[in-house]
Amino acid sequence: MPGTCVIGLQWGDEAKGKLVDLLTEEHDIVVRYQGGANAGHTVVCNGQTWKLSLIPSGILRDGVTCVVTGGVVLDPASVIREMDGLESRGVSMGSKLLLSDRAHVVFPWHIAEDRLLDGSLSGGEAIGTTGRGIGPCYRDKVGRSLAIRLGDLYRPDFRDTLGHIVEVKNRLLAGWASAGHTALAELDAAAIHDDYARHAERLRPHVADTTAFLLDAAEEGKRLLFEGAQGSLLDIDHGTFPFVTSSNSSGVGVASGSGVPGRWVDRVIGVLKAYSTRVGGGPLPTEQSNATGEYLRERGREYGTVTRRPRRCGWFDAVAARYTARLSGVDELSVMLLDVLSGLDEVRICSAYEIDGRRVTQFPSHADDLKRAVPVYETLPGWGEDLSAVRGYDNLPRAARNYLDRIGELLGRPVSIVSVGPDREQTILRDRVGPRDGSAAPPKPWPRHPHPSPANA
Ligand code: IMP
Q1: Which of 185, 254, 433, 438 is 20 to 30 A away from residue 111, measured at CA?
Q2: pTM score
Q3: Residue 41 falls in the annotated catalytic set
């Protein structure tokens, strides 16, 4: 039986957790395939709020297995905190949670590197990372010689490997710290070993070869739900580099992160907020540093789940979202937080950029070009009605429907789900878009306004 992917099409925080929670009912296994404790999911269920980070929100449902795959970077202490938090509220992990033995482990040096290196040494603009050691851990994974995977914590040579790495890291960190004129305490290999050996014992019942587990499950006809973390515009390869996270957070990361080939996925849902937000540095062409931005931030409670940082807010960017909808192979769209826009006299959609006097509908590959992009807006009438109790598409105010229809038109994909509040019930489900069988037409091409990359400008 085929699988479903839920992919954020903006800069993260698109309320994917709520959607995953809703869809979990129709699936046997929920799979988290990239990122780490930088992600935060909020799920509201029967009036109770759950804040999850690495553990998929499927954990709240009986009979669902939650799998954290090898594409994830895993901080054991943080996972254990999450497990404890869930267990203290009556959610038992039992055999419901599997952690890949291939997942790379976040150590204290990764967190120290993250805090030392973000922006300050290169002299450039800070990425504004979550400070959870995500980038440095992925860097060590790709570099290979200083990396430790979850399965390695159980090997007899763990203590020696760790001792060697701590020696190297102490030298590297001292060099970076002195270049940045910062004082830094030395890492203590024995103390780190004891902490991680203790964490490993706690996690032992959950550690598994998740690649084999998922391949068996797919071949047995189990229904898989892949839960993306962050948003496609933060994708390391296809996002607004270098203001991105260090994994493939768009749809392209599903197969590499989980080990499950794309042939097992037949429904890709692109999740969008009804407006734009971004947390951290980097370009956000439609940003509203004014009363509208404030309005969106306060009504949408736009403060980071993990870091509590206020999110930057702006109008819906159809150029960016169309790019990521294509990149992630999206079949249908889920528009979240539509209720936040109530009360605005007019709403705007960016449908092109002006860059250096040229009109562009292709998302630029370089962040500097995107920084110079001036949005070209379509202005639509707003609506005053409170949407939080609306349960049918046809019961939405006409202006809200027009807004959604225009988003669907610009992205070339139907809006099949609309969220009007945090609760499960505050969701409008339209006619299901059938499984991908090759009959869905590709999005109608937009007129091409090529914007050359600086390399061939
Ligand atoms: P990192 O993933 O901690 O390295 O942070 C890199 C960039 O991604 C920063 O701009 C973060 O604010 C952003 N980021 C990371 N995780 C999330 C998320 O879950 N939601 C929104 N932004 C995120």
Answers
A1: 254
A2: 0.94
A3: yes
